[in-house]
Design a protein that fits this description.
Mean pLDDT: 85
Distance between the termini: 80 Å
Low-confidence stretches: none
Largest sheet: none
Shape: elongated
Oligomer: single chain
Length: 79
């Protein structure tokens, strides 16, 4: 039983050592500078992301429409 406890304590110690080094690596500065965005910043990000999704979706739908509704028209272009 003591072998299991020793292994558990060792695992806990290794985990705590890793947790101490989180802010000291190459990404530590970024993590220290990170902050919660303001409502205005968040709204802008959501708007730009939404517009990008709509644009990509519309482009995909246009390609789908061209490949299904107008195959003979597209084939005629390459003759």
């Amino acid at each position: 039983m003591s072998g299991i406890l020793d292994k558990g304590w060792e695992t806990q110690r290794r985990f705590e050592e890793r947790a101490k080094r989180v802010g000291k690596g190459k990404y530590g500065r970024v993590l220290r500078m990170a902050r919660k965005p303001t409502t205005e910043e968040y709204a802008k990000v959501v708007t730009v992301t939404g517009l990008g999704l709509i644009l990509i979706g519309a482009l995909g739908f246009f390609i789908y429409l061209m490949m299904t509704a107008f195959p003979s028209w597209i084939g005629g272009l390459f003759k």
